[in-house]
Amino acid sequence: MNFLLSALIKDLARWREDAAAILLWMAIPLMIGGLITSLMDGGDGAKPSGVLLIADLDDSLLSGLVAGAYSQGELGELISVESVTVTEGTEKINAGDASGLLIIPEGFGDAFLESKPVTLTLKTNPSQIILPGIITDVTEILLDAGFYAEQLFRDEIEVIKAAVDDDNIDNAVVASIAVAMQQKIEAAAPYLFPPAIDIEVVEPPADEPGVPLALLYLPGIILMAIMFAANGLASDYWTEREQGTLRRLVSSPGRLAGFLGGKSLAAGVVIALIGGLTLIIGFLYHGVAWAKLPSSLAWVTASGVALFDWFGAIQMIAPTQHSANLVTSMLLFPLLMVGGSFFPLAALPGWIAAFGRKTPNGFITDR
Amino acid sequence: MLIVEDLVKQFGDFTAVECISFEAKKGSVFGLLGPNGAGKSTTINCISGLLRPTSGQVSVAGFDVQKQARSAKSSLGVVPQELALYEDLPAIDNLRFWGKAYGLGGGKLESRVSAVLDTIGLADRAKELPKKFSGGMKRRLNFGCGIVHSPPVMLLDEPTVGVDPQSRERLFEMVRAERDKGTCILYTTHYMEEAERLCDSLAIIDHGKLIAQGSVAELSAQLGARDVLQLSGAFPSDETKRAIGSLVDSSGLDLELIAQEEDSITLTLSSASQHLPAIFQALSGAGGKISETSLRSPNLETLFLLLTGKELRE
Lengths: 367, 314
Known about the structure:
Radius of gyration of chain B: 23 Å
Helix content of chain B: 25-40%
Mean pLDDT of chain B: 88
Radius of gyration of chain A: 36 Å
Oligomer: heterodimer
Strand order of the largest sheet of chain B: 6-7-8-3-9-10
Strand content of chain A: 5-15%
Helix content of chain A: 55-70%
Strand order of the largest sheet of chain A: 2-1-3-4
Low-confidence stretches of chain B: none
Distance between the termini of chain A: 33 Å
CATH superfamily of the largest domain in chain B: P-loop containing nucleotide triphosphate hydrolases
Shape of chain A: rod-shaped
Number of domains of chain A: 2
CATH topology of the largest domain in chain B: Rossmann fold
Shape of chain B: elongated
């Protein structure tokens, strides 16, 4: 017992001299975990937004209504409208600085009122996929709406146009047009409000609140830190062998079991430190209940010591330190891949997940 | 105190140590001499328990290293050829750890650690890491780790390899101090001058076999007053042998040809310097060409040459 404690104190004192390695064992998984969590959480939650350039060559009331339609409601949150000349707009869209360029030609308003053909030009950014599609769809809807409005209120439009041409807009004309339009809207209302075809949206019952995907990574990330630490600490057997202290130990009456036990306990202390810190960071970030911390720490520490002994056995079987490091590295990274550190076991294909659960770290992560 | 009887160690078909026997007494330094690969380290490893002998017996302070391994190991202090230290553990903690490995504890451990630090001259640097020490200081700490438990028997395996002259002298002083306390010391080296200075008795081994044994005085007596003459150049084999034989017959010299190669011959005779002209003349007459001459007085180095026909450091 005395020698076991001596071996424990000896290794802790030695490893304290290499504190940078301990920090790295913890920092690398935390860095990877931070990146993965950021990706899973979708960053700051901002919706994508785009810029629609509008070159309004008509500068009429109708062309203004078209331009304004893109800034209405939820569409306005997705698309910001910027007025440009054709030259400016062409330069910007060619440079990929906008999602689309809409050119409203001169005479658009008159052509609309006179039911003459007119062409709007919409250039979209080919490097973007979603926003140009939305702009195209909205433009087509606007044009359809304009067509039907023109068809429905043709007579009233004619009266308005004639009154404007004659510069004779008195209150009686405006009132008669308003009444006529109101009557047409009321006649069409049963078909429009509500629409003749209604869509009933059926939503499935709400599931139990699921575990966030980023949280599924937490055990794997913690185990990654533990595996790095266990592997790094296990290489100390070769350090002892290379510096001759193992040979000196064998020629002394000091019990090998005490020596190995002391080293495992020292590894347990370092692993508990690393595991504890990574657990606290993970619990804080994901808001996990603190009551689970002691049992999690105990499980992580016990698992880490088991992994340390496993890596240590592999290190000592290898004929050279170089080959020992090679073998453990060859084991470490595939195990991290299939054992739930890089990808949660729940997100892996069935047969890989089944295999992963049989690996030492997969077994630990799964519990 | 240390008894080795008919020790044999084989690695497959290769016999590294072949039936070696010797006894080292309390309060003495016993030298185990031989060139590199002679079997010295294998013998040491069998004594310290690192290797299991193929046959034979080793007894340390009355304990059989096979049957009473723990007691035998407790009685041994090992100073290995290669440093065996924790370079990232302060010197004082190295001594404490190895003291505990040998069963010391409490006040006894602390007093021994303190005494050993004084002995090895590192008391003022006790809390520093060995990785910051010079090579000589590391050697001294390596020695200190072997004596911290006051062992009755010590094994020193080529402790001066790669050590500067000043540190070597310091190490010799420490070895003598331990001997004067009554410790039995087995000291392996391939430096004959070290053995002559330090050892009370010696065993010379080559190719795993013990080829001579005794005190320095006894071994020197084997050589008598014969000098060793080494000549380099070109020497026709048969003609050279005939010329040497004729010279012995005609002059009555106690001349002996102990080694012959195409480019060198080694001769031994008394008062060699007085007979050099006659020897040169005989060899020239046999077609030999001498380019270099080396004449050495009798010592352990020349004894090894006489016994094996080769240099100790070959």
